[in-house]
């Protein structure tokens, strides 16, 4: 259950499930510049659909910048994609992603979902303020255009004893887990799979 939860969380954060009967496009796909994240998702998705999923490497070009590599995890298979979408009731899309109901009642799925979502979407921020005294602030943040999705995510975190706040930021919404104690609880109950994020979270706490 952890593996399928991870896949659903990663797809809600950074990927998509496409069921386009009109054009015959049945696909699960996620693109990321992080090879480690792509490898993790590929392994979990392969175990869920019992089919070896592939990773494709490609190059993108930043606006007025240099090309950079990304990694695409992709599964094209009408039956497998349809069965996965129907069984786990996962809804993806920047403005419409929604948590499957099972995430609220099954802890193994829930922790997998949270791990996949935060692996894909979270940033860890550490800042120092010098006035009126030297203060260290630290948080884990996710940003989304989907306020309702973040509200569901907040509820899911609360089931694990992790407090967070949601606030507007221009056209988007942010969810923050802030403070050493809350980050330590997040590390214990959810954590990250990716080494860079693991180390940065450790640095934020200590």
Task: Summarize this entry quickly.
With 206 residues, the protein is of the alpha+beta class.
How much helix is in the residues? 40-55%
Question: What is the tally of helical segments?
Answer: 7
Here the CATH topology of the largest domain equals: Endonuclease I-creI
**Annotated CATH architecture of the largest domain:** Roll
How would you describe this protein?
The protein is an alpha+beta fold. It folds into two domains: 2-102, Roll (Endonuclease I-creI); 120-205, Endonuclease I-creI (Roll). Helix content is 43%, strand content 30%. The protein is built from seven helices and eight strands; from the N terminus they run H-E-E-H-E-E-H-H-E-E-H-E-E-H-H. The strands form two sheets. A four-stranded antiparallel beta sheet has the order 1-2-4-3. A hairpin with a 4-residue loop joins strand 1 (15-20) and strand 2. The longest helix is centred in the first third of the chain and has 15 residues, at 35-49. It is globular.
Write out key terms for the chains shown:
206 residues; alpha+beta; Endonuclease I-creI; 4-stranded antiparallel sheet; 7 helices; 43% helix
Topology overview:
Layout: H1 2-14, E1 15-20, E2 25-32, H2 35-49, E3 54-61, E4 67-76, H3 78-88, H4 107-121, E5 123-129, E6 135-144, H5 147-159, E7 165-169, E8 172-178, H6 180-189, H7 195-205
Antiparallel strand pairs: 1-2, 2-4, 3-4, 5-6, 6-8, 7-8
